[in-house]
Amino acid sequence: MKLETFSYATPTGWSVHPLPALDSPRTLLMVFGAPRFREHPEPLRELSAAYPRSHLMGCSTSGEIHGTLLADDSLTVAAARFEASDLESAYLPLPGPEHSYTVGRGLAERLNDPALRAILVLSDGLNVNGSELVRGINAGVAESVVVTGGLAADGSRFQRTWVLGAGEPQSNLVAAVGFYGDRVRVGHGSKGGWDKFGPQRRITRSKHNVLFELDGRPALQLYKEYLGERAAELPASALLFPLALSADPHATKTLVRTVLSVSEKDQSMTFAGDMPEGHLAQLMRANFERLIEGASSAALHTLTSAGDVIGPELLSIAISCVGRRLILGERTEEEIEAALAALPEGARQIGFYSYGEISPFASGRCDLHNQTMTLTAISEI
């Protein structure tokens, strides 16, 4: 595998001239960029023209990761040309959250093949039920297929996101790329680092990813009591206090959920993933050191999950939650540095800050996560 990473910024343009000559049917071109490129797609079209045979994947962000650096209003790009591993890409429109399962399964079935080893998926970050999307993908492929990815973002605005389809940034879209063959290696890791506080509360009324009641009380009303003055900043302030979701008090598996929108009318909260009735929810708050340690642990897990043999070139795709960035503030680059430092020397890293992360919890089937650092390590032996 031959690998190059580069970036684009206004007004300086591309960081490399000319663009790396890696175009081929076995080339993956990953690009993450600022929301404004939806209205100003000229640099994205340059990439599409320069790599006409490649598989172009990308989405909007709440910050672009390139190596150990975090940028806004930029594009960060990785071009990976595989020697013996095949790629296939597909995308489907997402009319609404209620279609998430169907779209996920449809993409998985388009990519499914006995030689399929992994799928990387990028989705619209607002018009989706992430839990149903990954459930659909899981239903369409074998359990051995590694599924990772993330939800596109729009800073802290929560207005509109984009995903690349046919080289163009589009809203209400899900895209995926499949990796095939025995020589490709795809590892995954996902860690949080948040501390739970307050009582566990039972979800007493919900519908899919819309939460209406906790312990019989209006969910939004109860949540506002915890936020205090910050309630006026919803939904953005909810990123600072996610919910830990578990099936019962003794469950070892905990998923984290953050809010996408709120409804004053019915006092409900809409999350990026399902909030099943009967499950327990508990508030969480940040622990700075544990957030950074979580990024390092996620990177180490990508190596163990990829197997004992890793190729000489390693691409790490880092997808972290916008809530972590808001909490870490000026220390945000520390978690990016920690993730890259845990990988083998010479590894390349790009990524973005997202509205949701897709990865197995530790092993097995993928889940939707919030407020985690999730990494996908790709190499070829």
Strands, helices and their partners?
Blueprint (H helix, E strand, L loop, with lengths): L1 E8 L3 E2 L12 E7 L8 H9 L4 E6 L3 E3 L2 E3 L2 E8 L4 E8 L6 H12 L4 E8 L6 H11 L5 E6 L11 E3 L2 E3 L2 E8 L3 E8 L2 E3 L4 E7 L2 E5 L2 E2 H9 L15 E4 L8 E3 L1 E5 L4 E4 L8 E7 L1 H19 L8 E7 H7 L3 H10 L6 E7 L1 E5 L5 E4 L3 E8 L1
Helix pairs in contact: 2-3, 5-7
Low-confidence stretches: none
SSE class: alpha+beta
Calculate the terminal CA-CA distance, rounded to whole Å. 8 Å
How much of the residues is beta strand, in percent? 35-45%
Tally of individual domains: 2
Fraction of residues in H or I helices: 10-25%
Task: Name the overall outline.
Answer: globular
For the largest beta-sheet, the strand count, sense and barrel status come to: 9 strands, antiparallel
Q: Rg from C-alpha positions?
A: 19 Å
What is the count of DSSP helices, taking H or I runs of 4+ residues? 7
How would you state the average pLDDT, rounded? 93
Number of strands: 28
